[in-house]
Amino acid sequence: MSHFLSRLALLFIAGLTIGTTAIAANNARFLTQSVPHTMEVGRPYQVSVTVKNTGSTNWTADRFKLGFRAQTDSIVWGTNRILLAPGEVVAPGQLKQFSFTVTAPPAGEQYGRAKSYEFGWQLVEEGAEWFGDATPLVSVDVFRAPGVDVATGATDAAFRLFPPVKAPPPAPPGLFDHSFRGANVLEQTYEDERKCDHTAWIPNAEQIDVIARNAVDMGLSYLRMPVIVPPVVPGNSLGPQYCDSVHLEWYGPDNATNMAAVTDKLRTVLDTAQRHGLKMVVVIDGYTKYDEQCYWKRSFKDIEANARTLVQTFSPHPAVLAWDILNEPLWNAGYFGCLNSDADYASVVNAVHAMYNLVRANDPYDHPTTVGEAQTPNFKYWRDISSYASPHLYITPHQARVAKDPGTNFVNVDQVVYVQGAALREIERIFGQLPVVIGEFGEATGGGRPDDTFDDAAKERYINKFLDGLSIANHGHMLWSLSMSSLPSQQGHSFLEPDGALKPAAEALARRTWYPVVQQLYLGYLGRSADPVALQQAASQLLAVARASSYTDHDGREIRMAPTLQGLDQHYDSNAQLRELIDSLGASAESQGFHNYKDTGALVRGIFAGAFKRLPEGEGAQYWINEINSGRTSKGRAVLSILAGATANTTPQGLVDAATMRAKGQVSANFTASLNTDAWVQCYSNLWAANANRRLLDTVDSSTNVKAYQAKIDALLREMASGLPHTQQKESRPVCH
């Protein structure tokens, strides 16, 4: 029988036991760490390492320390010992978070290129031994980032900086939060097959239709696409050593022909996106420096007139959501070898700010603007021209020291979690109150260095962990990428096969569309958060039901059951598979123990109290009692119908109820997302943990600050992990960590 509880039946009935071994006198278990994977030379950064005392000795401040081990006990980060507080004692079973400040070491001699340093620590009893788990190594890339003052232009008159002519329009409230789900579109780059054909970046009509359909199926609402603006003066500036004899850079006979090749394809893409209900972020590309060429990219001055035409032509298009002023300006300049002095940095900053001013002067609709940049030290240059931040965040297996476990084909991606959290905090520090959408993220399969190659299963785990981190931070995302190109350089990153079929990682994204609904069902029927495995299983089942019952309308758009409680309630009677899933949840032993299904009045009161933190009013209570007693609504369906009704209720009380449900659902989602390693999942595995989670959710209401509430989630996780196995077993707690 299909049901939601296959995982939980094992966890909460049988529990989980872990074999134990003899405990050494000194021992420590690594739990987590937080360290940025990119830094700016000379800047201080907050980092942390969390360990558990799994030995039998007390750690005292006079003898026990956290020591740097990555490079033979040397001093790289300003110190090689982190001390306990004076008089502090960490007893066996206790957790200790070492929070400290490191200073980024010197960068390399070459501008625009990083120098890598290793970050790795271990417990040490001075004069006796190193002991316990060493922290997983992180390779930290340190960059230069000259102090170009984009706000005043006063740093160096030679930079000729272009301050913004006016502030960027504010982002629409609530648009660029975690609900913002999108993808980048790119068919092939300038260098692929040496074609040097800039219009080949843009999909053709058939390709964009397939891409748009798949985007909708994956639960995405936004696409981002770079558009290479041709120079006003046509012609190839690189020569045949870079391009084959047929395809040369901007080989059209005149500017009008080159512009038409770009605008015609862009219009087709925008029209198709609109037809499928998608919005687009259009990236203005094709330049890097203000008045100099950088490899194949021309200067801002070369493309200025055509960029003006592009903005004027397409700013009225209803599918345009925002302008991205340039893709990875400083990262590309460094990669192409165009950053060799502070003045080179200033030239790039000049160019991007000049393009921003051009957009502001020629877009009467005031679309939001952003700059999709890579590497955190470079983000500071663009905050004054951004309506929302769209940093690119790639955490490669090489940087996070992710490798296949010995003797297996399993890639452990837990380390990605440790690096991502610190990177997101640094992004938030740089951009302040601006909303954040990660403009690019992803990982390649089947290409690159051996230690950077993921198989499909590892990529799916990577994506899930990465998106869990964004859920906690309430940031949106645009994955890289959706491409139907068969070229290895594109297929390694694409979530689509060349024939348009979804890859496994894309299925993971589609499944996540149903996560909020599953959490609401768990809250309503069980009063708690779903564990990660059950969340994925239930979401997969609902996605399958939605796909099986979908149909195509006369415009070629797929119509399917909405991923909402109302959508489920509307299809309950007509869809046997859905009905079986919902009924199995209500009939489960855990739900029968949580709600009083034998007493209709008690059942209705319990549903209201758990979901809305209030009892039903007289008429409302009687309405649902009559619905159930008459047989019009089964007791198994009652939770779903009451919750769905609340989401549609627009009375003042109904809006408060919906806000309470929404806050509980978000806290619940963040709790599950925080179980981001196998060890944390083990901690949430029996009745003690379930009840602790229920107590956590009991205090959430419509006024709860969900982001601030994360501190309570973290505290509960620490409580779950504290103590030694024998003490946990006495309390009927899970044996974890």
Output the structural class. Answer: alpha/beta
Q: State which percent range the strand residues make up.
A: 5-15%
Kindly state the number of beta strands.
21
The shape is: globular
Give descriptors for this structure:
single chain; 737 residues; Immunoglobulin-like; TIM Barrel; seven-stranded parallel beta sheet; four-stranded antiparallel beta sheet; globular; glycosidase
Give structural notes.
By secondary structure, the chain is of the alpha/beta class. The protein folds into 3 domains: 28-143, Immunoglobulin-like, CATH 2.60.40; 173-512, TIM Barrel (Alpha-Beta Barrel); 526-730, no CATH class. 39% of the residues lie in helices and 14% in strands. It has a 7-stranded parallel beta sheet with strand order 17-16-15-14-13-19-18, with helices on one face. β15 (279-285), α4 and β16 form a beta-alpha-beta unit. α10 (504-512) packs across α12 and α18 crosses α19. It is globular. Residues 6-23, 151-158, 404-409 and 446-451 have low confidence and may be disordered.
